[in-house]
């Protein structure tokens, strides 16, 4: 029978995303209710290596549920990629009496946790966090809803300018090599075209769509572009369009990093709270090396090994719906 866990640790790792503080709060408050000591690891995996641990109480997480970023800071740790430093991190955890760790992170962080747990006897429970929403084992990750709402608000305002000046706007949103943000924002903003990495024929489709728009005398058009949709980025796409359609006055808007900041939405606070609560309960019930996720409105647990090997893909049928609605 496994020894009862008396102390757990929580860390945030990788890029920031709105809702991380809500998850931290849920982890701390649930641990306290369960009469378990909880330590915050400041600075992600680097903080684990350095032994930068701080004991948390209920007051430590007061008035943070609505704040973006992470109060316990985050980092990307090149040292953690080397086993010698992962061993140091493990020794720091054991020295502090930690019996299990809750990690709030994206694909890279969860893959790092999987490697760590394959080498050392320390239970890890993952909480999915990334605005890209590309983590296998969950329908939604913390930060995605807020990021899409932030981008949507910007696109709506750009639409006003496009209408006023008879312009074609290319709006680039984040998402690396996944099109979740672009797809959701494109449909919700009524964009004339959505370009995502998952659709390799999007340039030819774009040209056809612009031809039809020009024939209908549309006064303005919005094209939402995922940052990894086309080699060369949004500028390369705009140049191709300029060469073919001299009649369009074209503008480019790259929304950038402000999509990762700001107060988390109601939905992100909600799922972050659920994930944090269930992560602690999972550790205390004996679960090891799994991701807490939300699939079909149910809390699920997926092995970190599968999470590190898999990808959460967009539903390509939504592209067909987007095309039908923008005719």
General description of the model:
The chain has 327 residues and is α/β, with parallel strands linked by helices. 43% of the residues lie in helices and 18% in strands. The protein has eleven helices and eleven strands. Helix 7 (202-215) links the parallel strand 7 and strand 8. 48% of the residues are buried. The model has no long low-confidence stretch (mean pLDDT 93).
Describe the largest sheet.
7 strands, mixed
Alpha-carbon distance between the two ends: 63 Å
Count of β-strands: 11
Overall pLDDT confidence:
93
Structural domain tally: 2
Any low-confidence stretches, pLDDT <50, length ≥5?
none
**CA radius of gyration:** 22 Å
CATH class of the largest domain: Alpha Beta
Strand line-up of the largest beta sheet: 3-2-1-4-5-10-11
Strand fraction equals 15-25%
Secondary structure: helix percent: 40-55%
Total count of helical runs of at least 4 residues = 11
């Amino acid at each position: 029978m496994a020894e009862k866990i008396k102390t757990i640790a929580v860390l945030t790792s990788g890029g920031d995303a709105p809702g991380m503080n809500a998850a931290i709060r849920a982890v701390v408050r649930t641990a306290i209710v369960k009469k378990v000591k909880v330590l915050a690891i400041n600075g992600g995996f680097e903080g684990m290596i350095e032994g930068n641990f701080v004991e948390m109480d209920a007051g430590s997480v007061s008035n943070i549920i609505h704040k973006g970023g992470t109060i316990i800071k985050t980092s990307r740790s090149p040292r953690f990629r080397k086993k010698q430093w992962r061993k140091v991190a493990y020794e720091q955890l054991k020295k502090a009496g930690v019996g299990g760790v809750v990690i709030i992170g994206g694909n890279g962080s969860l893959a790092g946790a999987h490697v760590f747990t394959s080498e050392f006897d320390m239970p890890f429970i993952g909480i999915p966090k990334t605005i890209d929403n590309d983590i296998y084992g969950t329908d939604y990750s913390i930060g995605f809803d807020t990021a899409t709402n932030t981008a949507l608000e910007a696109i709506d305002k750009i639409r006003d300018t496009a209408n006023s000046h008879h312009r074609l706007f290319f709006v680039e949103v984040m998402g690396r090599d996944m099109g979740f943000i672009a797809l959701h924002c494109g449909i919700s903003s009524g964009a004339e075209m959505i370009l995502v990495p998952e659709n390799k024929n999007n340039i030819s489709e774009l040209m056809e769509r612009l031809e039809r728009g020009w024939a209908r005398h549309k006064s303005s058009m919005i094209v939402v572009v995922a940052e990894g949709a086309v080699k060369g980025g949004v500028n390369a796409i705009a140049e191709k369009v300029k060469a073919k359609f001299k009649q369009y006055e074209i503008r480019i808007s790259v929304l950038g990093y402000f999509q990762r900041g700001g107060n988390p939405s109601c939905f992100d606070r909600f799922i972050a709270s659920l994930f944090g609560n269930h992560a602690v309960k999972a550790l205390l019930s004996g679960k090891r090396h799994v991701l807490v996720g939300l699939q079909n409105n149910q809390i699920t647990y997926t092995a970190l090994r599968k999470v590190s090997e898999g990808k959460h893909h967009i539903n390509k049928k939504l592209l067909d719906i987007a095309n039908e609605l923008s005719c």
